[in-house]
Structures are given as C-alpha cells and as structure tokens.
Design a protein that fits this description.
Helix 9 packs antiparallel against helix 10 and helix 10 packs across helix 11. The chain is of the alpha+beta class. The radius of gyration is 19 Å and the shape is globular. Strands 4-5-10-6-7 form a five-stranded antiparallel β-sheet. The chain folds into three domains: about 50 residues, no CATH class; about 120 residues, 2-Layer Sandwich (Uridine Diphospho-n-acetylenolpyruvylglucosamine Reductase, domain 3); about 110 residues, Enolase-like, domain 1, CATH 3.30.390.50. Bound molecules: flavin-adenine dinucleotide (FAD). Flavin-adenine dinucleotide binds next to strand 2, helix 2, helix 6, helix 7 and strand 10.
Length: about 290
C-alpha cells in the first residue's frame, strides 16, 4: 500500500538538514496527514521519508523579547489552539486551528505541514496572511525569512528550495498588537470538512474608523490571497453600512473564484461578499465598536 523504502528520524535540526542536503529527494514528513494520503494515492514511488517528529523544540510556541511570536513548524493544531500565547495574542489563529479537521487530525497535523502542503484550503493560511506572518526557512548553509504572502506558488505548490525545512512561523508585534479579527470557515458540514471558502479579517479600529484592515481569503483563487483593493479602500474610512458593503464588493473583485464540486463560482463570490462583511462586523464588535 505504501511504497516507503526507508524512514530517517533525526533528533536534531542540524542532523536533519545534513541528511536533506545529502539527499534532496527525501520526502519530509511531519504529522503525515497529507503525505500518507498522497502515498496511498500513489503520488510517490519508492519514497524515503525524513521525519521531523523526533526533533526537540520544533513545536515550541514562544513570545520573544521584542514581542514577536514564534510558532514552531511542528506545533500540532491542538497544541496551537491550546497555547496561552496564541489564545491571548493571536485569537484568530485559535479560531482557525479549532475549525480544522477533527480531534485526531488536529492532534497529528502540524501548522508547518499545513503551510508547506500548499493547499488553497489550508485553514491556517488566511489568518497567517492577515497577520503578515514570516516563515523561517532553513537549509544547511542558509536561512531565509519569507513573508507567507510570497510563499504560495500555485495549487499545491510552495516556494521551498531544495534542502529547505520550515522551522518557525513568526508574527511581529505590530502585526497583532491592538488588532482584533475573526476567521470564518464555510464548508458543507460543520466538522471534518475542507473549506468551500474561508475568510480571515484582522483590523485596528479606533473612534469608528478603520486604521488598518486586512482581509484574506482561502479557496477563492489558486492560492490563498489578500484583498488589497478592499483594504486600501477601507483605510481611514468610518465603518458605516455603506463602507462595509463596498469593502465586500471589493473583496469579491479581488477573488478569482472558480467552479468546483464544492460550490459554483457565483456561490463563492456571494460568500466572499457576505462573509467578508460578517467577519468585519464581528471584528469591530470584538474591538468594542458598533456598526
Ligand atoms: C481526515 C482529514 C481531514 C483534514 N481536514 C483538514 C481541514 O479541515 N483543514 C485543513 O487545512 N486541512 C485538513 N486536512 C489536511 C491536513 O491534515 C493538513 O494540511 C495538515 O496540517 C498537514 O500537516 P502534517 O503535519 O500532517 O503534514 P505532512 O502530511 O507531514 O506534510 C505535508 C507537506 O508539507 C511538507 N512539510 C511538512 N512539514 C514541513 C516542514 N517543516 N518543512 C518543509 N516541508 C514540510 C511535507 O513534505 C508535505 O509535502 C485534513 C486531512 C485529513 C486526512
């Protein structure tokens, strides 16, 4: 059933990087909830796996001295949504993590695997796009910091270079401080379903005005996207009904929605408009505002 020829299980990151540099054909496995399905579907022949599970500290979540939050790539979704730092400072990521899969999947699946798998439906992606997260990509002789917004390359494709491992996801203080938000996952059923559409809003509002608004969408284009036209329109505007409706229209225009068996293009566009507005209103409410 599985064409696995070998599993390497390094216990340090350096060891893993060396093994990967010596043999870039190794297939990284984290929680395995995507890799094993792909193996079962015959996507790889005679694959040699490089498991990250025994590497200590790769699942740590910490608040750094300058206020940056570091999330280890091997943090499972359960570990993420139960973490105090995440709950206190990045509650929208908690919402996204809880909405993912079911309990068994959330215990196994890692946030790093969710990003590196490149799926447009990845539940962590829209929220991390809206928090302007950076990815730390480490190889044997290099470290790159890449904005997550530049990491996706197409459906199921990300810009990992040979020998690179994602080790951390970083969110700087100015990207979450005094921000509220909301994540909405719309799917055919409540549990164990992939999103038909997802929206993550992060905003800073004050005295009835949008200082900063970020809207990201999943499953509305070949990759997760930010709705920059909607965001630019909102800046400095008071949050009246008309403003929020116009933002919804701009969000719809940013999308490159398509037909799929989960939902038609027209239905997705309707969802983008309505759910963006709903998430914005909830974010304003959470900031103590009224609209
Ligand atoms: C029943 C079921 C339900 C699911 N429901 C959802 C859902 O609701 N929402 C959702 O978003 N997803 C869902 N998924 C998909 C999957 O669980 C997630 O994408 C998960 O986060 C993948 O993480 P993983 O640790 O299992 O990754 P793996 O399967 O181990 O790896 C995924 C990919 O990332 C690469 N990779 C992993 N870690 C790294 C790293 N640190 N550096 C470089 N490359 C790496 C691997 O080589 C592989 O290509 C579901 C899957 C199943 C089986």
């Amino acid at each position: 059933m599985y064409n696995i020829t070998n599993i390497l299980e390094p216990i340090t990151l350096n060891e893993a990087l060396r093994m990967y540099s010596d043999n870039p054909k190794l297939k990284i496995i984290a929680g395995g909830s995507d890799v094993l399905i792909q193996l079962n579907h015959g996507k790889f022949d005679d694959v040699e796996l490089l498991s990250l599970r025994k590497i200590k500290n790769l699942n740590n979540i910490s608040l750094l001295e300058d206020g940056t939050i570091s999330i280890g790539a091997m943090s499972s979704f359960s570990n993420t949504f139960r973490n105090e730092i995440i709950n206190k400072y990045l509650p929208v990521l908690t919402e996204a993590a809880v909405s993912m899969g079911g309990p068994q999947i959330r215990n196994m699946a890692t946030i790093g695997g969710n990003i590196c798998n490149g799926a447009v439906s990845a539940d962590s992606a829209p929220t991390l796009f809206s928090y302007n997260a950076f990815l730390k990509l480490v190889s044997i002789d290099n470290i790159r910091m890449v904005p997550i917004n530049d990491f996706y390359d197409g459906p199921g494709r990300v810009k990992l270079q040979p020998g690179e491992i994602l080790t951390e996801i970083l969110i700087t203080k100015e990207n979450y401080h005094k921000m509220t938000g909301n994540y909405i996952k719309f799917s055919n059923r409540e549990a164990m379903d992939i999103a038909m559409l997802s929206v993550a809003v992060i905003c800073n509002v004050e005295n009835g005005v949008f200082n900063d608004l970020r809207i990201s969408l999943g499953v509305s284009a070949p990759t997760p996207i930010r709705c920059y036209d909607a965001e630019n329109y909102a800046k400095g505007k008071s949050f009246s009904k008309e403003t929020i409706e116009t933002i919804g229209q701009y969000a719809k225009k940013s999308a490159k929605a398509r037909n799929s068996w989960r939902g038609s293009k027209a239905y997705r566009e309707h969802l983008i408009n309505i759910l963006s507005q709903r998430a914005i209103k909830e974010a304003i409410k959470r900031a103590g505002g009224k609209c």
